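RECORD TYPE: protein structure
NAME: Lipid/polyisoprenoid-binding YceI-like domain-containing protein
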Amino acid sequence: MIKLIVAITAALLASFSVQAADHFTIDSRHTFPSFEISHLGFSIQRGRFNETSGKIMLDAANGKGSIDISVNMASISTGLTELEDHLRAKDFFDVAQYPVMTFKADKLNFVGDKLVAADGTLSLHGISKPVHLTVDHFHCGMNLIKMNYTCGANAFTTIKRSEFAVDKYVPMVADDVKVLIQVEATKD
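PREDICTED:
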């Protein structure tokens, strides 16, 4: 009973908003960038990447922060092995030459203590372009299972894959790709 009271008290104290610059490490078991793309106009195909790592710094009190995320492109998962192999090949991601996709941002936008957007640079297939992520969910607090302070968010954007030289079959397979990211990170 004492442990439960201590855990609840710690959770209440830690659930207040981020007050100073805090550093976080991506929880790769709860972070999965994914995508949606129109396939010949018939259906929306989806996939995700299973290996993500990185660091996040949040300073909500001063409206600042940074994101430095790396995604292992070979970790793509679509539910279809043949498609995954094709996406890893030269026609698309060419993971032998470009094994990592990165997103780095140093402009985070807050409304109060809630992160609402991030502006940064997406590097994919050897090309870097500015990208704006909209955050539609953001929450920080004590994770009562792991007993550590955690922040989580859902973010999204749309990119044109042709701008990153991943243009095989455009326009039959859509140029616009919706990118969705659910992320959790634990305080260092």
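COMMENT: Residues 2-14 form the longest helix (13 residues).
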